[in-house]
Amino acid sequence: SALKRSAASARPGRSVKGETRISKPGSHLRSEGTIKRLQLYNSKPDLKRRKEQALLPVRIQPDRRWFGNTRVIAQDKMQHFRETIAKGVEDPYSVVLKSSKLPMSLLRETQEKASRMDLLSVSPFQEVFSRKHQQKRAKIGATDLEGLLEAAEKRAEGYNKEGSNRDHRALVDADGHQKEEEEAGGHFGEEIFNKGTSRRIWAELYKVVDAADVLCFVLDARDPMGTRCKQLERELRRSRQHKHIVLLINKVDLVPTWVTRRWVQQLTRDFPTLAFHASITNPFGKNALLNLLRQFGNLLKEKKHVTVGMIGYPNVGKSSVINTLKRKKVCKSAPVPGETRVWQYIALTKRIYLLDCPGIVPPTASDFAQDCAKVLKGVVRAERLKTPSDYIHEVLERVKKPYLLQRYRLPAETTWRDSEEFLSILGKKMGKLVKGGEADIDTAARIVLYDWQRGRIPYFTAPPNENENEEAEADTEASAAAAAAGEPKESLQSLAALKEIPKAHAFDEEDRGGEPAEPSATTEAWPCCRPERSW
To answer: Is residue 456 part of a domain?
Structure first.
């Protein structure tokens, strides 16, 4: 052609045979990026255009819609939303999506706001006490000091002293009633019973609650309701409704299968509940828990990471659950309370993180019944008790006699009248003696408490619904109602494989609930109680 494009080194986009826009190593030609940079150096800024505005002033059409509401909803739709959300709040498996798009402040009609209205918005201070006041009489509680004193005395009479101060709870029972020193039996709680209630432990809990998106409450299968923090659950429901709560029943190998099944059905009414057996080699419920955490990850897509916090009483297996999910020991765990002292951050996947929290104990009245409950829940270490024999009476009442005879290899005709006689028999059997050939009662009591806290003694709390027929009818009615509503609910996990887990104890026929005996019970006697070898 007559016109040819220039191949000058300063022209961007030139085409030279054998060369590309990006110069090759060792080439003497300039690359396109170098050419543009050199042109930028040589160009001069346009000062006139720099001083000009980006957009010229234009006329905005006057319209009242600029100052009106952006979103408007009718009363019938508002009532429909209220009814729908009221049903969703009661259902633990429903979650409100895109709550920022809904007028949640208008949908939630709380009784507290209705009963306690904002007085200043109804009657401002200027309209009541200024010179231009319109009301003839101010609506105040008291008009003089005598009326104020009388109102203060009425409030003092209804004041609940429980939880006000730890020092004043020594003579307050579990119901919050004042007790005399004679009725309390002269019992003052030891300092060891305040473990798990210190400010440092609760500060660690607050860190976990603030950082976690999902809170997993780990419960003991032997006593799920006793190891449940209801006070914390109510606070989370009230002030942190965006936090998701999951109940995890751990140590299911210590109770019969029907007990675990019924507790799961009972607690599922409040929150999503899973049965779990913490073991690195032979776990149960691990896949169900991982699937549930993945579902929360899909639900919280807007978050870069999903954090799951493990919360519960001491010695319920929070660290063991994390080790089971990781398939290796990443958290320090032990069969004694208080092993975890600070919170720990563990990465489960690239997007799901786990938080291990120290065990917490809700504050209770400092009487003997509450202290005994703490000992049996595993909150207190047995070696730090001053008088461990005081708590054996409760163990003997909860555990059947054949289980104790089998555990400590005592003769079948052995009988005892009280806990002291039982400890005396057990101490002589184990060889725990003091000066004079008498049994060491305190050492024998600590051994019994060790076995209790570590799950070596068969015991469980029966579920509240003990009638299988009533429960089956209730489940049938609930499933029929869900099917009629068009919302069938599936269980989070299948409990059929629960029978395959080797039980730690061989329960009798009454405790098994009609189920076949467990052939692979792993109960072991105390080494000192085993029969002697015959030579």
So the answer is: yes
